[in-house]
Amino acid sequence: MTIASFLTQLLELAIAVALAPLLVGWVNMCRAWLQNKSAPSLLLPYRTIRKLFMKDAVVAQSASPIFRTTPYIVFGAMCCAAAIVPSLATDLPFAQAADAIALVGLFALARVFIALAAMDIGTAFGALGARREMFVGFLAEPALLMVLFTASLISGSTSLPTIVDALAHRELAIYPSLAFAGVAFTMVSLAENARIPIDNPSTHLELTMIHEAMVLEYSARHLALLEWASALKLFNYSCIGLALFFPFGIAAAGDWLALIGAAPALIFKLAIGGVALAFIETLSAKLRIFRAPEFLGTAFLLAVLAMLVNLLLGG
Amino acid sequence: MSAIGPPVGALELVVTIVAAWVALGALGLVRPHSLRFVSRLIFPAGACVALLLTVIAFLSLDAPPQSLVMPLGLPDLPFHVRLDPLSAFFLLLIGAASFGVSLFSAGYFRASEGTPPGLICFQYHVFLAAMASVVVADDAYAFMVAWEAMALASYFLVTTEHRIPEIRRAGFLYLLIAHIGAIAILLCFGVLQAGGDDYTFDTMRNMTLIGAWPTAAYFLALVGFGAKAGLLPLHVWLPEAHPAAPSPVSALMSGVMLKTAIYGLLRVTFDLMHVQLWWWGVVALALGVVTALFGVIYAAVQTDMKRLLAYSSVENIGIIVAGFGLTILFRAYGKNLLAAITLTAVLYHALNHAFFKTLLFLVTGSVLHATKERSLGKLGGLIHRMPWVAWLALVGTLAIAGLPPLNGFVSEWLLLQAFLFTPSLPQSFVNMLVPLAAAGVVLAVALAAYVMVKFYGVVFLGRPREAHLAYAHDAGRFERFGLVWLAAGCIALGILPVNVIQAIDPVNAMLLHSSAISAGGGNWLLLAPINADRSSYSPLIVLVVIIATVVLTMRIVHRFYHGRIRTAPPWDCGFPLQTPRMQDSAEGFGQPIRQVFEPFFRIERHLPTSFDAAPRYFVRIGDPFWSWIFLPIAHAAEFAARIVGLIQQGRISVYLTYSFFTLLALLFFVR
Amino acid sequence: MIEVVLILTLPLVGAAVLALIGERDYAPEVNVAASLCTFVAAAALTARVISSGPMLVLDRLFFVDPFNVFLVALTAFVGFTTSLFSRPYMRIERAHGRLSTGRLRLYHSMYQLFNFTMLLALLTNNMGILWVALEGATLATVLLVSLYRTPASLEAAWKYFILCGVGIAQALFGTILLYFAAEKVLGAGGGALLWTELNSVKGDLEPTVLSLAFVFLLVGYGTKVGLVPLHNWLPDAHAEGPTPVSAVLSGLLLNVALYAVVRCKVLVEASAQTSFAKELMMGFGLLSVVVAAFLLSRQKDIKRLFAYSSIEHMGIITFAFGMGGPVANFAGMLHMTVHSLTKSAIFFAVGHATQKAGTQLIDGIRGLITLSPMIGWALALGALAILGMPPFGVFASEFLILTTAIRDQPWATPFLLIALGIAFAAVFSKVQPMVFGETNAQRLPERTALIPVFVHLGLVLMLGLWIPPYLAEWYRQAARLIG
Amino acid sequence: MAGVPLYAQFINLLAAILLLLAFAMLAQRRVLTLIDLFAAQGLALAISTGVVAYGTSQPHLYFSTVLTFALKVILLPWILHRLIRRLDVRWEFEGLINIPTTMLIGIVLVVFSFNLALPISQLASTVTRSTLGIAMASVMLSFLMMITRRKAIPQVIGFLAMENGLFFAATSATYGMPMVVELGIALDVLVGMLILGVFFFQIREQFDSLDLRHLEKLKEPDQ
User: Fold this and answer.
1) Which phi and psi angles does C213 have, rounded to 5°?
2) What is the C-alpha to C-alpha distance for residues B663 and B659, in angstroms, rounded to an integer?
3) How far A50 CA lies from chain B's nearest CA (Å)?
4) At what angle do helices B497-512 and B85-108 cross, to 10 degrees?
5) Which comes out higher in pLDDT, residue B504 or B515?
């Protein structure tokens, strides 16, 4: 790999890490607007993270090393994921090391660790959260994988840059299967990012919370890292979505000018995506936890259907 | 390894090793009741032998086949043995896994209520020897003898604690199904032999079956080996027998013995037969996926840690068999390269499962010793009491959950890649069908993560659910060695896939006359089955990057902020009274799955009502296949027996009438 | 020549001596000695036959070929080991007061007589004498079966006598028909019943007569083999007689009767060019296997259990001989050998087990392995061996039979599969609790004799892993003989 | 029957008598009469053997004539009578099936065994070939008799009558088996009879009756 592509890789990673909290802020802002509330500052997430880093960490007596290492591992996994997903450019040397399946694997890794950490303290809440998280995960993961499979069947590859290349820089073709995949993906990413209708990030109501229940015991820098990680997760998912369904503007290998143009394109797309997410969250209501399988099951079936459609209509 | 080349007379060495194992076992009979003799001397020795076997097998992986004729066996059919890549691979698997298990056993076995240690040692080593002989046997008779010896030895090991009725029942069920399966295998060989002049595998290779015979052979094999592998619906013995056995034995049975069934399937389907029909593959694929889903769903709701692992074995076998079916599919359509990749995935997963499942079963053994508890509902918080076991178990857990960069992920990655190649198949029906199978496999894998989080979290994390867990002790020296070896195996297999695949490749060359790495655009670092830009994976890089980020973050955080930490009691949400019993029980953790898959379970459940004097909650999850298949069969047999019993009703004149009418009937028949 | 005479005279002398000295308490040793001498003579005979081929002695009256010599050796051997076993067994029985010394006298002399009749049946060249000897065997064993004089044993003996008597009468009629057919070819007089003669002219014997004769012979000797539905005497006789007698009954007598059937089958098959003899034997064999397998699952009495297992195995052997051909015949003879070794070993173990538990009821026998591991293991291993578990020899023969069957007679294999499966489930589910678990057995006055058990099991194990070349050669010759 | 030598006709006559007696035994209720009938059958058998011996001039058959006479006409009936007296069982007995039905079945059997034996008799070299069918018929009839009797002694008599049939087949249809065989057979029959005698006493002292209904305990337990 050339030094240039290596730089691209680092640049993209840096942008992801840097912009992730901004996206969260933006989404919250939009949601506040849509709900006629006075919006919090766009930079609030940064402030929160900084504040948390300042604090002294409090750790339960019954915590094991797993509990304390988990935030770093989750954060690391998310960074890797960010390095795989082509948001700006498609020549990502690291993407060679981990393709779409590995990406899902990385998400799973993060999920498992955070769930284990939640169980580590041994409170009712932690276990409850872990259970629900894994429960959501076991349907969401396959669905996501199926979506990626659909894309990779179209492009004949499982490495994301290649997929994006195939989708973005070929002559324009209509892929009916991608419609199904798109719907499925949206549903999955809602679930995976602890969004309404599966989870509600802005509440600590025992009966409904999933993600919050798991991180209940965390404080200070650990919590900060976890928040940042989940912001990164949202960012990654959005980037995956954009890369698969709106791949326009992503720079091809070694195309510096395009790279210059890619950044604003990305930000624009993300902004739109944020608004869309806010819309969905505002318009839909939180589901009971046992409605979740139906929701995700639908997503899974849609994704499978997408594959079948792809094979039927030849993509 | 090809540089070194196979040791001269590798096969002789293997045979010697088998003999050595038997001899060691017999040595145990000399002083059957002396535990120290057995555990300090014989088990370590057996472990060394296992290590030797591993090395030999590894060296002869890409050696040309060697064969020998033993001075034993039937007159026209002396025992033939053969060492080719396929058997070398499985020898490697057996040796590597049993090395760890033997080391562990050296520290594990105590003087038990049932079988004396010397006898256990004998049965144990005969079991190992039998498994090794199964994979080197080169004629039907030797194979069957080894196969059934394996079943017998393991049966006696399962019934070590024979005073407990459930264990006796489990052993009986196991041996019964094993025996029926063996008869099926035997008949399969009868078909393959096709009236040739003897029963050597060479004869079978040279026979060309015609008409329905190949199909008959394939399905007899599927039934026979499926019964041993725990394929639906013949899996029922597995969750009974594995928990019943002492943990090292469960480890061997689940980690190694099941693989001999896979070996048999491969040997019969790809080596002894020349034709493979595409719909065989479809059948195996469907069976595999269903088995995998069934296994993992049931694992999710288990409350006994060994049963949970047993069901997870069912799941892994299902995945392996699904891959096997896919291989047949590709092979039948002449896509040998793809078949090779799939087969690699199959073998790789078999190897992985041998490592992590063995590891986890041994872990349950240590936990069992430390706490005398098998029920997940009574464990918890052991990571504080037994850190060695806990951390090594974590490796196994992550591996079996299929997470990068450990080994479970690699094989599943390969398998999914293989699934993605199906569009190149000519038949649209299969094209429609395979994605569904892929979806099923993915679902099973995702659920496996759920199961393993449940397992690890409930056993090792949280707070001890019982007071006496406070006295749990960590594993002993030998046990640690065994566990470390297996965990190291999981990691190595995880981060060095390219080398492993190169090592496995001779098997492809032998069975499919094709190679999985020939077309690959990868290098030592990068695993790329077809070419790098189609799909590639490099766990080493992933691992490095993750570690780098983690370390970096830690450094930065501690550098720019501070590392101050206070410990405090967990947040009680305003309920001052918090007892460990308030944590999620195993049932609780499995409850969502139970809710979702309600219709697939036979649940008997007793919920306490508010009027109960002594409220207790109780749920038992039964295996539906009992009532669907096995009980009906049993009842039918009973009924038939009762009818037949009427013959024998005591009156001599009736008996005379029988003879009389037999005579008349025959006389009538001859004229 | 001299060996033949010895083999036949020694048991007779033994019987006479034992009849005289019955009361003395060294009678068992005498019994052992007589059997041992017989065995030695038989060994010498086999050695000679192997070295210098088949032979006719005493003006064609006796005929020794590989087929019957291996049965002779087997019979003498098992007779010897059984006498070894019956020494302590019978002493214990007397100590328990189930037998008087007078009965012991009867037992010993009849035991020798029984051996004599079987050896005679095997050695004779004359189909008539064969019949006489088998009838004699019935008579001798009837008294042994009713040895305890309990109502049950009397009933068993009575059924045994009547059923086998009637059956054997049919066999006589068959023999007469055989003679009737033979005399036209060979002329009247002694020659016409000599098997060698018949064998030499079997091609030109009258087919219709012979097929008719075969029916009678099959029904007749088949009754003694215990083929369903002529088997009804067998379980009763096995269950009610003293255990050594059960051992020799299913270990030896059934073999001898089957030997007679096979001899006749050879003649008939050659003369009547149809395959109906094969079909009859295969049919009877399968029927016996299946019915016995189902009946196995209903047994409450351990000796009855193994009696039915004998029926099952006789069925298997009959089926094998019915299929014919070198492999199947080889397998059939191998199965004869291993079955009689294993089954007698099992009965030895069962004998001591019942003595320890004080009952023959399966539910009454528990956890042998805890009190007396040797008996427990003997029973467990014996049961596994008889169920066709490798590496025991029974598996070797079943392997050959099944693999031959699925190519030659595919229609039969499902039945065999089902039957073997059910038999395994039935027997093992009953044996396991007897061997394992908590015990209720008590100690015995006399030391038990388990050497014979383990000698037998050892031999069976050996035959599963390695068949001595000369033995194999010997089987092959025999297999060729009976086509 | 022109062309057939006189002795052969005579044998056929005796054969007919034999069959008749077999029927009579089948129909007979009283045990003593049964024994006498049995003796009579034995006599007919002995005579026929003698005639065959004379007609075909086979000296060894004379011997078996004497043997038959001694055994079947004198010894066995005498033993039986003694038994009856000692055990004093002079009852009438009931068959399992009533007499007419039994007779009917018997006739069917006779027809069956005749046309079974017919093809064989065609190719017999002996002049007295037709007797084979009769012998078979009488064997069958005795078999039937054993089935239908419920008491021990009549069953045994049926057994012995069956032996008679066999003897008849042996002597007249095939001009006698080899000597040694006949001796053996005779010996077996005798010993068997003695053993049965012993048996009767044992059964008596166990069940104090010779009714076979007591001997139906051993069966498959029907749970």
Assistant:
1) -60, -40
2) 6
3) 10
4) 130
5) B504
Residue C58 at interface with chain D, using a CB cutoff of 8 Å: no
Q: What is the DSSP letter of B211?
A: T
Are residues D174 and C126, on separate chains, in Cβ contact within 8 Å?
A: no
Which among B649, B656, B663 is the nearest to D220, CB-wise? B649
| More reliable by pLDDT, C308 or B468 | C308
Report yes or no: B545 at the A interface, CB cutoff 8 Å: yes
pTM, 2 dp: 0.90
> What is the distance between the alpha carbons of residues A93 and A97, in angstroms, rounded to a whole number?
8
Residues B490, B315 contacting (CB under 8 angstroms) = no
Contact D221 C300 (CB under 8 A): yes
- Alpha carbon C377 to its chain centroid, in Å, reads 24
Chain C: touching chains (3 or more CB pairs < 8 Å): B, D
- Mean pLDDT over each residue of chain C, to the nearest integer: 88
Structure tokens at B496: 């060095």
Neighbours of B492 (CB within 10 A): 13
d(CA B37, CA B44): 11
Contact C108, C99 (CB under 8 A): no
Spatial CB neighbours of B669, under 8 Å, sequence gap ≥ 6: C215, C276
Q: How far is the C-alpha of A27 from the C-alpha of A235, rounded, in Å?
A: 11
**Number of structural domains in chain A:** 1
Question: In degrees, to the nearest 5, what angle opens at C-alpha B486 toward C-alphas B480 and B490?
Answer: 135
- List the single residue in B436, B546, B580 with the smallest CB-CB distance to A76: B546
Contacts of C411 (CB under 8 A, 6+ apart): none
Q: Are A121 and A276 in contact (CB under 8 A)?
A: no
Instruction: Give residue for tokens 């049975």.
Output: B253
User: What stretches of C409-468 show up as alpha helix (H) in DSSP?
Assistant: 413-435, 451-465
A209 by DSSP, 3-state: which?
coil
Spatial distance between the Cα atoms of C77 and C80, rounded to a whole number of angstroms: 5
User: What parts of chain A have a pLDDT lower than 50?
Assistant: 315
The pLDDT of residue D3 is: 61
Q: Which domain holds residue A25?
A: 3-313
Give pLDDT tens digits for B282-334.
999 999 999 999 999 999 888 888 999 999 999 999 999 999 999 998 888 88
Q: Could you tell me if the ipTM is greater than 0.85?
A: yes
What's the N-to-C CA distance of chain C in angstroms?
A: 27
Q: What percent of chain D has pLDDT over 70?
A: 89
B and D touch with 3+ CB pairs <8 Å, answer: yes
At position C85, the amino acid (one-letter code) is F
pLDDT at C189 over 70: no
Residue-wise pLDDT tens digits, A241-279: 888 888 877 777 666 777 777 888 888 888 988 999 888
Q: Could you tell me which chains touch chain A, where touching means 3 or more CB pairs under 8 A?
A: B
Best probe of the B interface among C209, C406, C416, C440, by most B CBs < 10 A, is C406
Q: State the amino acid at position B408 in one-letter form.
A: G
Q: Which residues of A touch B560 (CB under 8 A)?
A: 53
Between CA B53 and CA B14 the distance in angstroms is: 7
Alpha helix segments (H runs only) across chain D: 6-27, 31-56, 59-68, 76-86, 99-122, 131-148, 152-168, 174, 179-207
Strands B618-622 and B602-606: antiparallel
Residue B139 forms beta bridges with which residues? B200
Residue in chain A lying closest to B385 (CA): A64
Pairwise CB contact (< 8 Å): C135 & D188: yes
Please say if the pLDDT value at position B424 is more than 80. no
Of C236, C116, C133, residue with least CA distance to C175: C133
Interface of A with B in 5-64 (CB under 8 A): 53-54, 56-64
Among D116, D119, D216, the residue with its CB nearest the CB of B667 is D116
A302 CB-near residues (< 8 Å, 6+ apart): A143, A180, A181, A183, A184, A187
What single letter denotes the amino acid at residue D4?
V
